[in-house]
Amino acid sequence: WVVVFPYGGREKGSGVVLVHRVSGIMALWRLAGGRVSRFSAVARQMRYRSTVAVDDDKPEPPNGFLFNEKPLRPGEKRQKEEWENIWVYGMGFNFLLFVAIYIWKPDTSVSTWAKQKALKRLSEKENEQS
Fold first, then answer.
1. Which residues are CB-contacts of 23 (< 8 A; sequence separation ≥ 6)?
2. Quick one: three-class SS letters along 49-116?
3. What angle do CA 49, 55, 61 make, to 5 degrees?
4. Rounded CA gap, 107 and 114, in Å?
5. Are 70 and 76 in contact (CB under 8 A)?
6. In this structure, how many other beta carbons lie within 10 angstroms of the beta carbon of residue 37?
7. Which one of 14, 60, 92, 130 is most buried, by most CB atoms within 10 A?
């Protein structure tokens, strides 16, 4: 939906037109004379500000090394970041959990169910005959 308003609000006689894209419900609300609250205008402005990049957040330019880490000098030890151990142990635990669940999952195939039913019926027939 596109709602067209004269510039500066809904005053008549304005020569400039303001075009604003809104959702269907909001367009009907505005056409019916409803006003947008100040809170929603502030929220919209905050949402816009959160999407604008800050100069401090610019990534480093690539330097040709894996993960942009420079090679260590001989005898130097690599310093791990705080999140690395959590990620490694968490992923390892989740992998082991997945393997255990996959190995010991119940067999729910139709052929297994049918085989069990057929064996049960055969054993019942043998019991009736004897």
1. 1
2. HHHCCCHHHCCCCCCCCHHHCCCCCCCCCCCCCHHHHHHHHHHHHHHHHHHHHHHCCCCCCHHHHHHH
3. 130
4. 12
5. no
6. 9
7. 14
Residues 6 or more apart from 18 whose CB is under 8 A from it?
4, 5, 6, 7
pTM above 0.85, yes or no: no
Average pLDDT on 15-30 reads 53
What is the structure's pLDDT at 25? 59
Tokens representing 63? Answer: 């330097």
In this predicted model, what pLDDT tens digit does every residue of 57-81 receive, in sequence order? Answer: 677 788 888 878 888 899 999 888 8
Q: Is 31 left (phi over 0), alpha (psi -120 to 50) or beta?
A: alpha
Alpha-carbon distances of 124 from 111, 113, 118, 128, 130, rounded to whole Å: 20, 17, 10, 6, 10
